[in-house]
Amino acid sequence: MLFGPLQGLAVLVRTVVSRPSWLAALSVVLICVPTSRDLSASVNVTPGDLGFAALAVAVVPAVLRGARLPRSRLWLAMGAAVIGFGVATLTSLDPETSMWGFIRYVEIFVVVPVAVVLAVRDRRDLQLVCAALLTAAVIQGTIGTWQYATNTGASFAGRNVRAVGTFGAMDVMGLATVVGIGIVVAIGLALVLRGRARLVLVALAALLVVPLLLSLSRGALVATMGAMVAVLLAVAPRVTVRAAPFAAAAVIVLAGTLAADATSGVAPRLATIATAISDPDRSVSDRYDLWATATSMWRDQPLTGVGLKMFPSYRDSYAPLHLSSGSDVEDPASGYHRQELLSPHNLYWLVLSEQGLIGAVGLGGFLLALAMLTWRRTRRQAGQLGPPDGRLPDGRLISAVAVGMLNWALINSLFGDIGGQGTVLMSVSIGLALWWALQPPRRAEEASA
Question: What is the pTM for the complete model shown?
Fold first, then answer.
C-alpha cells in the first residue's frame, strides 16, 4: 500500500522530467481554475503561476544534463530588459514594493519564456502546448456563452450578460484573453495543416468568435483581428486578399445576429470602437486620463521612472481631477465591488511611467527584435519552401501560431497590462515565438529530402 503511491509518483516525476511540455500544457489549463483575486494585495499567486514555477524547476535537470539555449543576440536584448527592471527597482522610493514588481516582470518576460523554449523539443511538445491553449479557450468560451444565456455573467448595463468565464467580474479581460488567443492558435494551425484537421480548426475558431463578442472586450477584439491580419500576411498574403471579404461578411452577420438581442450589449459596445476618439465613453475617457497620468510621471522621472508597482502610489498626485476613482463590477458569485484604477491599462505607458526610458528601451527593444525575427523567419520559410506545411518536422507547425500569438499580445498591450490570470499566456506567446525564432534555418533541399 505504501509503495504503490510512491511508485506512481516516481513515474509521474520521470514523465515530467523527460517531457516537461506536459507541465507547460497543464499550466495553461490551470488558468481556468477559479480563484479569488485581491486587488489590494501586492502579490496574487494563481494556479497558473504555480504551474509555470514548477515548469521552471522541471527543466533544470535537462540543463544539468547539457541542454543549452540556441545562440542568438535576442538574449542580449532580454538581458537589457532585465537591466531596466533592476534599475527601476533600485531607484524606487519603495524598493521593497518594487522588488515584487521585479519578480513579476522577470517571471513573465524571462523565466517562463525560457522554460517554454527548454521544454519544447519536438513536434509532440508543440502539439501538447497548442492543444492546451485550445482546450482552455473551449472551456472558457463554453462557460462564458452559458453565462450570457442564463444571465449569470458579469453585470453590463444592469444585466448579468457579460461573459467572463471562470475569472469572474474582477478579471473581465481573462476570458477575452484566453478565447482571443485560442482563435489565433486555431487559425494559425489551420493555415499549415490539411484535410479534416483544417476544417475542424476553422469551425472551432468560428465558434469561439461568439464568446469573444459576448465578453464585450473591445481591446481583445481589436487584438484578435490585428493578429489574424498579421498571420495571414506572414504566411499567405494571397489568401488574405481572397479571404478578407468572406471573413468580414461572416463577422458582420454574426455580430448583427448577436446585436439583434438588445440585452446582449454587443451592438452598443461595438459602436463605441468607432467613436473611441471622436466621442469616447466614460471608460475610454478614463483610460485616456490614465495615459496622461503615466505621461506626467515619466516627465518627472524620464530615465528611471517612479519604480516598479509604484503607479498606484503616484496616481492621485498626477491624475486630473475628473478621473473616476474606479469602476463598478458585479456578478452573481462575488456581488458588487468598486474596482480601483490602479494602472494605465496600457503596458507601454505603464513601463514608461514606472521604468522610464531605460526600461522602455530595454523591454521595447526585446519585444520589437523578437517580433521582427519571428516575422522574418516565417516569411522566409513560406517564400522558400512554398505554402506552409505543418506536417514537416522542422517546427513549421507553429510558424503561423507564433506570429499570431506574439502580435496578439503586443496589440492587446495597447489596452491592457500585466494584471490578471491571462497574463501567463503572454509568457507562453513569447516562449513559443522565441522557440520558433531561434530554430536553425532549414534549406529547401534538406526539407525535401
Answer: 0.88
Model confidence at 270: pLDDT above 70: no
Q: What are the tens digits of pLDDT across the range 20-75?
A: 888 899 999 999 888 766 555 556 778 888 888 888 888 888 777 777 888 889 99
Q: What is the DSSP string of 54-74?
A: HHHHHTHHHHHTT--PPP-TH
Show the cell assigned to 339: 474596482
- Long-range contacts for 13-21 (Cβ within 8 Å, ≥24 apart)? 16/58, 17/58, 17/61, 17/62, 19/121, 19/124, 19/125, 20/55, 20/58, 20/59, 20/62, 20/115, 20/118, 20/119, 21/119, 21/120, 21/121, 21/124, 21/125, 21/128, 21/129
Of 237, 231, 179, 229, nearest to 208 (Cα)?
A: 179
**Residue pair 305/88 in contact by the 8 Å Cβ criterion:** yes
Burial environment of residue 429 by CB neighbours within 10 A (0 to 12, 13 to 18, 19 or more): buried
Whole-angstrom CA distances from 257 to 214, 261, 267, 390 are 12, 7, 10, 35
Nearest to 129 by CA among 389, 366, 436: 436
Residue-wise pLDDT tens digits, 273-313: 666 666 677 778 888 889 999 999 999 999 999 999 999 99
